Amino acid sequence: MTNIFxxxxxVFYKEVLxxxxxxxxxxxxxxxxxxxxxxxxFGIDTNIRQINTVVFNADGRRESRELLDRLKNSDTxxxxxxxxSDDDLNDAIISGRARVGIKIPVDYSxxxxxxxxxxxxxxxxxxDSSVAGQAINxxxxxxxxxxxxRVLQDRAAFAVDMRPKILFNPDSRSPxxxxxxxxxxxxxxVTTFLTAFSIVRxxxxxxxxxxxxxxxxxxxxxxxxxxPYLGIGFFELTLILTxxxxxxRVPIHGDVFLLALLSLPxxxxxxxxxxxxxxxxxxxxxxxxxxxxxILPSIFFSGYIFPRETMPWIFxxxxxxVPATYYINITRGIILRGAGVVHLWIDGLALFAMxxxxxxxxxxxxxxxxxxx
Amino acid sequence: MATPPQSxxxxxxxxxxxxxxxxxxxxxxxxxxRVEKGEIFGFLGPNGSxxxxxxxxxxxxxPLSGGSAWVEGLDVGTDSEAVRERIGYMSQNFxxxxxxxxxxxxxxxxxIYSLEPARLKRRIEEIVQLNGLGPYLNRLAAQLSGGWKQRxxxxxxxxxxxxxxxxxxxxxxxxPVARRQLWDLLFELSGHGITFFVTTHYMDEAERCSHVAYxxxxxxxxxxxxxxxxxxxxxQPHGTKRIEITAPEVTRALRLARRIPGIRxxxxxxxxxxxxxxxxxxxxxxxxQLLKNGIAVTEIRPLAPSLEDVFVELTYxxxxxxxxASD
Lengths: 373, 327
Known about the structure:
The structure holds 2 protein chains of 2 kinds. Chain A is mainly α. Chain A folds into 2 domains: 8-44 and 172-371, no CATH class; 51-152, abc type-2 transporter like domain (abc type-2 transporter like fold, 3-Layer(aba) Sandwich). Chain A has 14 helices and 4 strands. Chain A has a 4-stranded mixed β-sheet, sandwiched between helices. By secondary structure, chain B is an alpha/beta fold. In chain B, the strands form 3 sheets. Chain B has a 6-stranded mixed β-sheet with strand order 6-7-8-3-9-10, with helices on both faces. Chain B has a 4-stranded antiparallel β-sheet with strand order 2-1-4-5. In chain B, strands 12-13-11-14 form a 4-stranded antiparallel β-sheet, covered by helices on one side. The chains are: A mainly alpha, B alpha/beta.
């Protein structure tokens, strides 16, 4: 009688005992992600507002003051100083006291009154490309708007009237964008680390070697070790979603049960990754380093912070091999866009395929490098 | 698959021409031996000489590169799972879960071997009785002293009533009392027909085994009972005998003894000198010579070689052979 899952029950029960005995580890592995959520949820706003701006108004008359008011009202600029010379204007930007410098020439009002083109100089600190981009967009838009109004007077409506409507996350709140993505990183963190550690600890202790001379089958051993951490991963997911919904007020537009279902293949991937790491690492310190190695691409190449569309082609290609890419598409899809299974089944399938591949790879490595070594 | 010869079915372990290669390196080179049921088989050798590799091969963890092995009448190459059902294994670092209690450790290993609850309960009671673990059942394994950890580990390895137990350096790092108690236990169990395969570095433990083998860099260079090994011609060169000289001033005595013709080699063992001398060397004559030089002699007597002497001699021989081969 061969049962390829032999030993599963015994290992599962033992693993639950370990987790219960080492309550502190469990507690911190569940709490630290929530702290990370608080930091990102409350502390970070990716929308660019209130850029420090220095102004040299050489003209000073009503038209020039109206222009400055419009810049201020855009919410993009915060005028924090006025200077009286070109040198001071430059100096304010070089010293970092302001990121944008605006110079209104002495003849600004005169030229407008004489129906001539008036120029305004906008100096922008390009060190932070997103700040610079926002400054360019808003100043150009205000300039264009100002020109059109002067040309058209009050005569007619604009020939082309663009009416943008933001469908999801209409207020462009950062938590709505960041937290669903963060879920992917946090789950990976918890499950990969815990699985890898639980196996590497047995390696260090020598108990793994002992198990191999018992009739336990590798499948029984691995599943017995995986399932408790799958449970913890799921609990963590529930915790994160509850926090996201009720503390950060991120509305969940789609079906929570679909989200739970599609989280399974992702957890499967991260657990398999944990086993793969444990087949390589011989100490917990080594496992820690390898686990960080898997976290980094998940942060940078998954679209969690940086949009995948703007990546160089090589990183864009790479992002297809990062499991978090698919899971972030799933979480953002369900939470923000209310997507259903018709939109997301392919992501779920991709994750499932990755998980299977990784598990096979991990099991084979495990056999060759750990048992027969 | 080779059908096992009748004699292999009867033996606890029958290894024939075992070979294990890792790449170009031959870790185990043509090793053959046989362990009868109920023996305490001592497997000795320096670190890295292939002891663990042999254990891994016999327990079905490592495929054989050559040769064949039967354990309890089962071919380890094709029947490794059935082999693992029938053997127990205790590693030198007492593979226990330190964050589980004594009882939980026993229960875990019992479930691993799929013992039914009733049998598991009975076996745990028996083991606890035998090893005296009773007072510690609810204590965490981490809190046990070395000796008790070792008893628990042995208990875990015996739950499923194996007929053959592999003990990999079972007494490394535990106190002398616990060491003696373990050996008493092994003798008792071996009286019930259980076979032990024990690796050790302690020569006094080797002396207690009913059968010893010595492996040196992958080759088995000694195999037999301790007494038969002592009689080996390589150990006791023809025309020589061993004597023990006990003297109060042992270092001065040694200096002098080395100058006396007829004494081939001499070393200090505690308060006495062990010397290899010509077969017809006159012991009374030796005593007179020492006394003449002002050295008091307590006793001079013939001596049988110890197992340590045996392994030292055999290792020298083997090293000489290897040097010849590499020249």
